[in-house]
Design goal:
1272 residues, alpha+beta, eight-stranded mixed sheet, five-stranded mixed sheet, 39 helices, iron
Length: 1272
């Protein structure tokens, strides 16, 4: 058989210079990520979404171009790229560019120096993406900032990451450059063997990346075959050889990130070495090989537009559009043919490649199994039978200067998202006509309308030979378009109303752009989309060198090991002999009753070891023992009464993670008594079902008589959705049976809860359970009680099988089964005087608890609802509402976030109704002697607030379709001490070094850094003598949860007290010595048998008192009324940090929390199926968090000056959560922008309902861009 003759039976490639071979013993669909982590045992490269949407898995691949033969590095998503496609390639992982042994790469040290890591889970992928970019040389800051759309960070808010990488750009500002000077002298930097200089990443010549000889690859494994083809004829011969077997042509395998394959093909054919498919030629037309990557196409298009503008100026439009497709690593391996194939197989896919090629008038060349070529249009391609055919090339015409081409892609966020609607336009202008008269019929195409809609044919025909700048023609075209746009509605996609309106608006935008100087002045800015300049930030804080290392702005103590991939997380634990993997079987509906569970097919899958149901639990079927906030039992596995879609019904245990996940989908579940779920608070309130509502607290007025003074009555309501925590590390646990019990490595914020729950579930004593936590890859409340669910399930499997078991949830299962931030609503009525002072308030707050009333936050909501205002006339009730969703849980700043946005919404409502300055209304309602008054004046001055208000008013008068808004929000965050936190400090006599273990959990918030600084400060030693050890339940028994921003302070206090005890013991020894060094003192103390280990447990009975944290924020943003897109132009924020224990850490907490809030209010949208309750936004493809280009363009952070906290720990204040509460300022800035748009639309109402999240869709529909208002 020619296709298999003389083919090698194993793939050979290198990772970090070490050769690896892969043969038939490894599944042919194995990803590079799986191989790196599970076979090469290099855990610096992370895994999370497994669909190219988060960037945690990025590595560098050095490849040889099959056409030019040049070697080059590219960043790739290792979770998508097949390991067998690495044959002949060289892979570099984070371990390969720098480490403790060989020295660190400057990228790694720069990340540390600029405090650009928090939890650190995303950091290796970020570094490797930048490492690949460095090879280009002469990167500008704009290019750097544009290259991280596929790298998600939930912790930092991106600003420090971008600064760290922009410091390598050719146009780096002097101040940023100065901050990075001399870093090589402070840390061990990896030196290039060739140049003798610090490694720059440009080592392509030294990397082994050889083009293999004539023998290509053919591997036959038990579950499939892998071929590597060298030519089109080779592909066709393979087609002949495989007969009727299902097959897939493989390039980057990026389609798997869009549509997850249910059944793998029997044959994979790697076509990356087929030069005919990777070449291009340019003459009167452009001929692109179909397997040209999107990155290569984009670079070629930019080049042609610049070098041959008379023929190919339009290709810049295509390149700009490709830049909006996915992200850099996906574009590096994803190909034109691959993208078109997704569209071919899934007509509903809004393919940007398909759209822009059709816009340009491209054709496709298809080769059949007999090597015959056929040229087809793109629409015709969708109807071809492509079985055993190959897309050979794409042909694009030359278009002279009479053609005007444009395209749009409107997304939920700035980058790395599929389109709500995309659009392409190609108009040929008649040079003999007047205005912008068209020559012939134009091209008007849209994606995202419905699977069969492409050309707006009637609109094209209508516009033929017409002057598109004629108002009557414009309206006629919009009317034609209105008639032929029939959007479908498939959740979680946006509504038909939005998509239809958006399509019309995009046609209007393009027509404006044809002759911006010929349209009315106030219309002109409606043509282009929002332009985003390079972002920047400014951080101001005080630091006292006399107090150092306390109050010293230092990087996180773990930053370097995080940037080098040496930091270990739960799933990085070494794999043990006999180790197994567990996965949940989740319900697909709820509420319902399970009639039958049949696991036969799952158990018959090779590699599956066991399946467990509720009756297999030896102890108590609950993971919520009666500890703080957990009032109701939640079951580990449902015994049959399903409460919600996504509830765990069983556990599959298998030999690999992939087998466990696959087997979990094979378990068949029959349901009966399936009910339509009740999902929202408003549904419950409308139903009148009081059994679903529980009272949780209230505020009673102390001055009820003031009600008679009210002159204006204002009524309203405000609804806000939930939020997924989006920890980069999903729920994870490893359980290892040992001789006297079990070692548990859990990604938990609460060790005691984990220990207690496992003890009860297995019926074993607590002292047989050893819980260890080194660090978490993000938490935000997600890993308090919800982590215990996974830990108990994992422990059950390990206990039953007496083998190590690892359980790491996929992002889909994590999102489906775990609770999220409580969605909340408020109904209110307020009576105010002429100055807006509240004389009475009657309000009710509701939270969506999910199916049980656990971890209720509405009590926190009512507590923080007061904020900085006088509550004496308020009557407020707080209620929890039971729905048919997973039990919701704490999420960063739980309750406080919702409480503050509720009261600030009311303040805005009052100001709008009375036509009063919103800041003055707030000041009129302040508590007596509130520091907010002074902070407000300070912020107004430093932010030039009054001047900007006037500038914005003028901007809005001059622009019909671009609007700006500015807003102000104050905050008082009452902070209380609670719980208990241990610290143990040990001094080692040999060298005087110190080890600390505490009861907190390092989640990225910098607790270990603050503890290190406090320890060194109290003992009077240098920071490098102190090391913080992993948390465990032996040194910190019966401890409290790390949450509520308290743990850093509490553990610092406990450490301080333990250190003071040690100093007390050392003092008598010191008195006998003559100015000893630290090491001499410790050596002598050891000789005198002084106990050099001290412990302390912090409680709220210690020398601390509750206090308030104050903050003020101003935000300005700009809105494109014709699309609903927005960008935050500037944020000025002052927060009261007391005397910061660690200023750089606190800056990071403020920025990260604020940006997480931006996601909550502007982007993140949870969508459930109304009939079965299934979460539909359950992965990175359809649930979007803020990206690097969604943060404020100008982000200014300032600590309150001269404000030590006399009642806190060492005069500091907590910072982890309060900043998120102020992020609601963007909602009110947005409302102010939309006020101007609605006024232009003829709406005169002072207030309108505008709920959150204020997604692009919500903004568009609220801005009222009706087509009959589209003027020229």
């Amino acid at each position: 058989m020619a296709a298999t003759a003389a083919r090698r039976k194993e793939a050979t490639f290198t990772i970090n210079g070490k050769e690896y071979k892969v043969d038939e013993n490894i599944p042919v669909n194995t990803s590079l990520n799986t191989f790196i982590r599970n076979y090469a045992k290099l855990t610096g490269t992370k895994a999370m979404c497994l669909e190219g949407g988060c960037g945690a898995c990025v590595v560098t691949v050095w490849h040889q171009d099959p056409v030019t033969k040049q070697k080059a590095p590219i960043a790739v998503n290792s979770c998508l790229f097949p390991v067998l496609a690495c044959d002949g390639l060289a892979v570099t992982t984070i371990e390969g560019i720098g480490n403790k042994l060989d020295g660190y790469h400057r990228l790694q040290t720069r990340i540390m120096q600029l405090n650009a890591t928090q939890c650190g889970f995303c950091t290796p992928g970020m570094v490797m993406n930048m490492y690949s970019l460095l090879e280009k040389g002469h990167l500008t800051m704009k290019e750097v900032e544009n290259s991280f759309g596929g790298s998600i960070c939930r912790c930092t808010g991106y600003r420090p990451i971008l600064d760290a990488f922009k410091s390598f750009s050719s146009d780096v500002p002097e101040d940023l450059k100065k901050r990075c000077e001399d870093i090589e002298e402070l840390y061990k930097i990896k030196i290039c063997e060739k140049s003798g200089q610090p490694c720059s990443g440009k080592c392509g010549d030294s990397v082994k990346c050889d083009k293999l000889g004539s023998t290509l690859l053919h591997i036959e494994a038990s579950e499939g075959e892998w071929f590597a083809a060298s030519s089109i004829s080779d592909i066709l011969s393979i087609f002949d050889a495989i007969g009727d077997k299902t097959y897939m042509l493989v390039a980057g395998n990026t389609a798997r990130g869009v549509y997850h394959r249910v059944n793998e093909p029997q044959v994979f054919i790697n076509i990356n070495s087929v030069s005919e498919l990777r070449s291009h030629s340019v003459g009167e037309e452009i001929i692109l090989g179909a397997n040209v990557t999107l990155t290569e196409a984009m670079e070629l298009f930019y080049k042609l537009a610049k070098e041959q503008p008379k023929k190919f100026a339009y290709t810049k439009v295509l390149a700009d559009h490709i830049d909006l497709i996915a992200n850099v690593p996906v574009r590096n391996t994803g190909t034109i043919a691959g993208n078109l194939t997704i569209k071919y197989e899934h007509n509903e896919f809004p393919s940007d490649v398909f759209l822009i090629l059709e816009t340009a008038g491209a054709t496709l060349t298809v080769v059949d199994k007999d090597n015959k070529e056929e040229v087809v249009t793109l629409p015709a391609y969708l109807n071809l039978n492509m079985k055993k055919k190959v897309l050979k090339n794409v042909k694009l015409p030359s278009l002279d200067e009479s053609f005007r081409v444009g395209s749009f892609k409107i997304m939920p966020r700035a980058q790395n998202a599929h389109a709500y609607v995309n659009a392409g336009f190609r108009f040929k202008i008649n040079s003999q006509g007047s205005g912008r008269t068209l020559a012939g019929k134009p091209t008007v195409v849209f994606g995202g309308i419905n699977p069969s809609f492409l050309h707006a044919s009637k609109t094209e025909e209508y516009l033929k030979d017409k002057n598109v700048l004629d108002q009557a023609v414009l309206q006629g075209a919009l009317k034609q378009l209105e008639g032929e746009l029939v959007p479908d509605h498939v959740l979680p996609d946006a509504t038909p109303e939005y998509r239809k309106g958006l399509a019309k608006a995009l046609l209007y935008k393009f027509i404006i752009s044809l002759a911006p100087d010929s349209v009315k002045k106030n219309v002109k800015s409606g043509g282009p989309v929002l332009h985003r300049p390079v972002s920047s930030g400014k951080q101001e804080f005080e630091t006292d060198k006399k107090e150092w290392p306390l109050n010293q702005p230092i990087p996180k103590v773990e930053a370097l090991v995080q940037a080098s991939g040496e930091a270990k997380y739960v799933n990085d634990a070494p794999h043990l002999p006999g180790e197994l993997y567990a996965a949940f079987v989740l319900s697909s509906v709820g509420p319902a009753t399970v009639e039958k569970i049949n696991a036969t097919d799952a158990l018959n899958l090779p590699g599956v070891v066991a399946f467990y149901k509720a009756e297999d639990i030896p102890g108590k079927n609950a993971f919520t023992p009666p500890l703080a906030g957990l009032d109701e039992e939640e079951q580990i596995l449902s015994p049959g009464n399903v409460k919600f879609a996504g509830e765990a019904l069983g556990i599959v245990v298998a030999e690999t993670q992939d087998i466990a996940v696959r087997a979990s989908k094979l378990v068949k579940v029959d349901y009966k008594d399936v009910k339509k779920p009740v999902l929202t608070i408003r549904e419950v309130l409308s139903s009148g079902d009081k059994s679903r509502i529980a009272d949780k607290g209230k505020i009673d007025p102390t001055d009820p008589k003031a009600k008679s003074e009210a002159k204006h009555v204002i009524k309203g309501n405000f609804d806000i959705g939930g939020q997924y925590h989006f920890t980069m590390e999903t729920q994870s646990c490893v359980c290892i049976p040992i001789e006297d019990g079990m070692d548990v490595y859990s990604a938990t914020q609460w060790m005691d809860l984990t220990q207690f729950a496992i003890s009860q579930a297995l019926g074993i004593p607590e002292n047989s359970i050893n819980v260890y936590v080194r660090r978490l890859g993000g938490a935000y409340g997600a890993k308090i009680s919800r982590a215990t669910h996974v830990a108990t399930a994992c422990a059950l499997a390990a206990y039953k099988l007496n083998r190590p078991v690892r359980m790491v949830l996929s992002i889909e299962d994590n999102m489906k089964s775990m609770g999220k931030r409580f969605s909340c609503v408020i109904d209110y009525e307020v009576g105010v005087d002429d100055n807006g002072v509240i004389k009475y308030m009657e309000a009710t707050l509701y939270e969506n608890a999910g199916y049980v009333f656990n971890e209720s936050v509405v009590g926190f909501t009512i507590h923080h609802f007061v904020s900085c205002y006088d509550q004496s006339t308020w009557s407020v009730k707080a209620r929890s509402v039971r729905t048919d969703l997973p039990s919701n849980t704490y999420c960063r700043a739980p309750g406080s976030t919702e409480g503050i946005v509720f009261i600030e919404n009311i303040m805005e409502h009052i100001a709008k109704t009375l036509n009063k300055d919103p800041i003055q209304v707030r000041m009129n309602n302040l508590k007596k002697d509130s520091p907010i008054q002074k902070l407000t004046e300070e912020l107004k001055q430093s932010s030039s607030y009054d001047e900007r208000v006037l500038t914005i008013e003028e901007f809005n008068k001059e622009n019909l379709w671009k609007k700006r808004g500015i807003a102000f929000v104050p905050m008082e965050y009452p902070f209380g001490f609670w719980g208990n936190f241990h610290a143990i400090v040990s001094i080692y006599a040999g060298d005087g070094t110190v080890a600390v273990a505490h009861g907190g959990i390092e989640c990225g918030q910098g607790i270990n850094t603050k503890v290190t600084q406090v320890c060194a400060h109290i003992l009077g030693i240098s920071l490098d003598l102190v090391s913080v050890k992993p948390s465990n339940n032996l040194t910190a028994p019966n401890g409290m949860v790390t949450g509520g921003s308290i743990a850093s302070e509490a553990c610092s206090y406990a450490t301080m007290m333990a250190c003071k005890e040690l100093l007390k013991r050392l003092e008598p020894v010191k008195k006998t010595m003559d100015h000893p060094t630290w090491q001499q003192l410790i050596a002598e103390a050891y000789k005198q048998n002084v106990d050099l280990c001290a412990t302390y447990m912090f409680t709220n009975k210690d020398d601390v008192k509750n206090y308030s944290i104050y903050g003020v924020t101003v935000a300005e943003l700009e809105v494109d009324i014709l699309t609903g897109q927005q960008q935050i132009l500037r944020v000025d924020l002052i927060e009261d940090c007391g005397i910061s224990l660690s200023p750089e850490i606190d800056v990071g907490q403020i920025e990260g929390a604020f940006v997480m809030g931006l996601g909550y209010y502007l982007i993140e949208n949870l969508v459930y199926h109304p009939n079965n309750g299934e979460l539909l936004t359950n992965r990175t493809w359809n649930y979007k968090t803020p990206g690097a280009k969604d943060i404020p363009i100008d982000f200014r952070i300032q600590f309150r000056r001269n404000a030590p906290n006399p009642t806190g720990v060492l005069r500091s204040k907590a910072t982890g959560e309060p900043p998120l509460c102020m992020s609601c300022v963007v909602l009110f800035a947005l409302r102010n922008a939309l006020d101007s748009a609605r006024k232009n639309a003829g709406k005169s109402e002072k207030w309108y309902k505008f709920d959150a999240p204020a997604t692009t869709e919500n903004i568009f529909l609220t801005g009222l861009p009706k087509a009959d208002r589209y003027i020229l």
